[in-house]
Amino acid sequence: MKLSILTLTLSACLLIGCSKPAEPTQSSDSADTADNIESHNPHSIEALTDTLKADGVDIDSPEIQPIITADGKIQINWRLIDTNTQKADINSYQYPIDIRSQAVQNYAKAYNISDQQAQHSIVVSMAAPEALGKILDQLEDGYKGHELTDGADMKLIIHTKDNVVADKHEYVFADKFGEGLVLPIEIRPAK
């Protein structure tokens, strides 16, 4: 009996919750205020677009553009990606991950490398998105995928369509996590 009363009560609550929604009661002044707030919202893409256009910025032609070669291929413009950060001395670098950590020990064992090499590889791999994002901005539709090689000679390999020029580069991290460390990058187009 108690179970059927409880079931009826819950069913009634569900039906009440599913009834017709209330009609909006905003006056036109409230709607204008809401639109005004939205146009000044720093998180609104429309507000950002309006602000950039008002400042004379051509949003249809982004500043970060690749080089287009004579044969129509995309070539990464490294000048727009490089950070001008000095390369760090890895012998005295203060890594943000302790060399005695279990992660470093496991990595060193898995790839048969020294603890120092493992520590370096882990930090570089964790900082890699800084470089990857900048490169993806230029690849347009040429990007297919990427991989980070493991071990002592870590590098970022970016797989692209055949309309991208093969290239190699060394990226120096600017972000505090990995600042000054170098990430070798290889652009590898499909054959």
TrEMBL record:
Record-given protein name: Lipoprotein
Organism: Moraxella bovoculi 237
Upper taxonomic lineage: Bacteria, Pseudomonadati, Pseudomonadota, Gammaproteobacteria, Moraxellales
